[in-house]
Amino acid sequence: MRGNDIRSERTVSTRYLPQVIDLLFIFPCALSLYLLTLPPTLTWAHYGADGGDLATAVALGRLPHPPGFPTYLLLGRLFLHLPWGDPAWRLNLLSALSAATAALFTTCNLQSAICNPQSAIRNLQSAICNPQSAIRNLQSAIRNPQSAICNLPSAICFTLAPLFWSQALITEVYAPAALFSAAVLLLSLRRAPAGLLGAVWGLGLGIHPTLLFLAPLILTATIGEGKTTKDTKELTKGTKEHKKTFVSFVSPFVSFVVIKKEGVVVIVALLVAGLLYGPVLLAYRAVPSPWADLNSPADWWAYVSGRMYHRYLFALPVPFWPRRLLAYFGLLARQFTPVGALLAFWGWRRLWRERRSLALSTALTFGLFSLYAIGYNTADSLVYLVPALPIAALWLGAGLQRAAEWLEQRRRWAGLLLLLLPLAQAVWGWGAMDRSGDDSAVRWARETLRAAPASAVLVTSQDAATFTLWYVRDVLGERPDVLILDQDLWGHEPYRRMIAREIGVPPDRLSWPADRPIWKVTAPTVD
Fold this sequence. Notes:
By secondary structure, the protein is an all-alpha fold. Helices cover 66% and strands 2% of the residues. Helix 17 crosses helix 19 and helix 21 (440-451) packs across helix 22.
């Protein structure tokens, strides 16, 4: 009997070893890739102009630009205690770790939704507890590689997607947002407890409010919990009258369970997000911020709702929509290569046939992110698609599995040809992504500050210039005597109050400092 149990354990661990290998492979490889291409400090590359404001806010304990990103502030504060690199490098590391973990969660999502519905974490524990059969299991997995083939290329393609890779290297909120997006997708696929799902969603909203667009996925997960199970179907078998009686009796309770679960998720998410955007952000009022004072409920709401950016929401002029749509589809085609994009569409069609609710909810969520990114009237608006990429990776996994099955029917090892897809991404993308030696932003700010006369006023009109000068002066301690004035922020009342405190005059007596040397500075062209 004991021998049968041992053989059963070996069979289970052999069956799940390819998934375990995927999990053990993807995180260290993704993290190594990002560390090799990570910039040593702030960078303007990859739409990283806001990095200086975020790094300064985290380091000084003040509010960043709206809506505040409280979860990012807390995570960033933890990473600033690391002993390596300058503060911006540590926040770059936060993005790299977030992206590598998002790749790991995406691999788990692929295992849950595409290749195998069993728990990947439980599989990993089973393999660790049975190390004596590792070699035999590995040989078995090599002889039957199809289950690994359907996951690994998809996860690697996600890791190497240019938009995702670029945000994994810089001080920004989008890689952590993708991490929480992948985590919510994972918990939804695994039918996690409502409280846990709501808490993770609430923390994600504290990274970026656009994670509200994950609601269709969460709704699908909660409704799935209330579906009729096989046992319930067995109980409803019988005469037509008994079925009617049973359904009329049970339906209110089933509806109550579904509504109750949805309510728990929403309530917990709102509670967590409320604590983050309420008490956590209010704790940052002690340090003057150029963005807000939060001295009244109206000030707080204007800040957390991002009122100063409302003019960009769906404000793209109609004549520019064709060009933006062309850029949007071109960006999507470049993420997984054009072949990968077609496979992702094929995979979504497969999900539509086999798991229609998942296909519909993922399409709706991706569509909401896309609509927001296309309609937002800024040059870098397409970065709002980053949290939606774990969903695209799910579709790609479904398409790659169909392709692997088709190839395996013709030649046993032909499925390994799918690894050419991420290889092409790596070859084409490395040069554009690599910023391992890029310190041009900080070098420019240092040179500008050192060249300025004593007590000079540096006048800027670019976010990249202003935020980088803030970082070098306030965080790195270069030239604290220099005053940095942003022309675009001069009309913003909290900014004027901060400048008044800085030069030691009452806010109502603040005027343009004409008695100090004034330098107009402009940052080099940035992407």
